């Protein structure tokens, strides 16, 4: 795919989100999946729309979505040589169903076992974040790069999902509070994008799925940011196991954050994060 095709694809994602998500916001019923997570008609409508449009334009590329069965997801990922789309049609479903304006759609193109292109679109704010591996990251067509001076760890705004962290670590974070303030917006993909845009300074999450981080990790990396797991490994891995996330846009702050968390600095390096 050339750059023109990928920009056109971003337009497909934007239009679909406006028509399938915004039209249902504050006017949708919900149900629950077998794992207890929320599901709305908006999730399914967005999934159907993009599955159809992607298949019409690129029939040779496989399609993996959060809304597929686990059996089909595993089958696709076992075929390691496949090029595939990785879609979260509505990241932040709980927010969406409750009427909270913090949700997004996330789509990545995975080739050769790593994300090559990704887009995260926030229809409420009409913000499209995208990246091409080795080619940079953009917000609504403008290059995405650090524009604000870095902060020391004790003044940083941290995006932290306490629910999925080890209890001992969560308690330590609340007792010692190494950061300046803490937020959690309920949408992993949106938090990746906002971190890449410098709207927060660091992030910690105990377990994200492939569709939560496939596009976001690429966007942050191409914006000059850094990420790894709590074990000091690269976040991206093409399987269904949840991955922890430690990340920051600023290299020095990333090192300080890894140090406080006890993540090996040599393993948790910028080269390992990308």
Give a written overview of the molecule:
This protein has 274 residues and is of the alpha+beta class. The protein folds into two domains: 3-143, Fructose-1,6-Bisphosphatase, Chain A, domain 1; 153-273, D-Maltodextrin-Binding Protein, domain 2. Helix content is 36%, strand content 26%. It has nine helices and 14 strands. The strands form three sheets. The chain has a seven-stranded mixed sheet, sandwiched between helices. A five-stranded mixed sheet has the order 11-10-12-14-13, sandwiched between helices. A two-stranded antiparallel ribbon has the order 1-2. Helix 1 (3-21) packs antiparallel against helix 2 (41-57) and helix 6 runs parallel beside helix 7 (210-222). The model is unreliable at 269-274 (pLDDT under 50).
CATH topology of the largest domain, by name, is: Fructose-1,6-Bisphosphatase, Chain A, domain 1
Determine the fraction of residues in helical runs and give it as a percent range. 25-40%
Q: What's the β-strand tally?
A: 14
Going by CATH, what is the homologous superfamily of the largest domain?
Fructose-1,6-Bisphosphatase, subunit A, domain 1
Radius of gyration: 18 Å
CATH structural class of the largest domain: Alpha Beta
Class inferred from helices and paired strands? alpha+beta
Fraction of residues in β-strands: 25-35%
Name the average pLDDT: 90
Distance between the termini: 22 Å
What count of helical segments does DSSP give? Answer: 9
